[in-house]
Amino acid sequence: MIFGMTSFTFIHVLISLIGIISGLIVLAGLLASDRKDGWTLIFLVTTAATSLTGFGFPYQGFTPAIGVGILSIIILIIAAAARYPLRLAGAWRWIYVITALIALYLNVFVLVAQSFQKIPALNALAPTGSEPPFAIAQGVVLLLFIAAGFACLRRFHPAMR
Q1: Which of UniProt's keywords are assigned here (predicted)?
Q2: What pTM did the predictor assign?
Q3: In which element (H, E) is residue 142 found?
Q4: Contacts of 112 (CB under 8 A, 6+ apart)
């Protein structure tokens, strides 16, 4: 047990946090029209690994977490295709921006949800996840990602390689 988590859970959380941090660096790059090639690879790989390791937890029927994992994998496949073999050409630039940001958003969405479940002070505010503080937190995160998405679509015009 590490911090009260199994080794598998700890590795899953660590990979997820690396995905979120690298994703935020990629987001900053998109805003600066900087491809951030190395960080992008780390972001896509760790975000995919987060979703894939999420399927390693005991199966207890179809849950929202499984749905988010499936959706994330599909979105990451599109983002990786737009970024690498299709090289951001034409419409693939904006498709990449949108799918990369959705993948990051889904990871942050789960981080917020898990924070409300695991951090006592947050759990006291929203013990079931259906209370206003949880909805407000998720709403703020969503609005920030929507605003960032529009800004990235306007600003991200990298040189072709």
Answers
A1: Membrane, Transmembrane, Transmembrane helix
A2: 0.95
A3: helix 132-155
A4: 134, 137, 138, 141
